[in-house]
């Protein structure tokens, strides 16, 4: 049993006499998502830089006001153990944030 060639389907008739509704103006869903992502990245960057400043101020206050006599070795240990990981975290976040912004202009 062989079948003959398939006939093309007939287009459907439109009897509504209505024009297609235009899309509402404004940003698309993708634009809204990108805008929200940028806003969250900005807040994360600000929060991490504020955390770094707060930690620096707290360690400096503790080292100067609470330790008598002033001990440089204790300050070095505090800065190395607490501030260095936070600096790495802030640097990574800011690098990712600004790297993403500069990478968009390449493609």
Walk me through the topology.
Elements (H helix, E strand, L loop, with lengths): L28 H38 L5 H32 L4
Helix pairs in contact: 1-2
Let me know the largest β-sheet: none
- The average pLDDT value, as a whole number, equals 76
The low-confidence runs, each spanning 5 or more residues with pLDDT under 50, are: none
**Gross morphology:** rod-shaped
Cα radius of gyration in angstroms:
30 Å
Percentage of residues in helical conformation: 55-70%
| H-E string | HH
Query: From the helix content, strand content and strand pairing, which structural class follows?
Result: mainly alpha
Number of strands: 0
Describe, in short, the structure shown.
Helices cover 65% and strands 0% of the residues.
Which characteristics define this entry?
about 110 residues, mainly alpha, 2 helices, rod-shaped
């Amino acid at each position: 049993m062989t079948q003959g060639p398939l006939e093309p389907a007939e287009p459907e008739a439109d009897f509504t006499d209505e024009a297609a509704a235009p899309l509402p103006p404004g940003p698309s869903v993708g634009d809204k998502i990108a805008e929200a992502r940028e806003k969250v990245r900005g807040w994360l960057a600000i929060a991490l830089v504020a955390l770094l400043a707060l930690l620096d101020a707290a360690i400096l206050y503790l080292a100067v006001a609470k330790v008598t006599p002033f001990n440089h070795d204790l300050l070095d240990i505090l800065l190395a153990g607490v501030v260095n990981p936070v600096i790495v975290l802030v640097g990574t976040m800011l690098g990712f944030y600004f790297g993403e912004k500069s990478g968009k202009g390449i493609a």
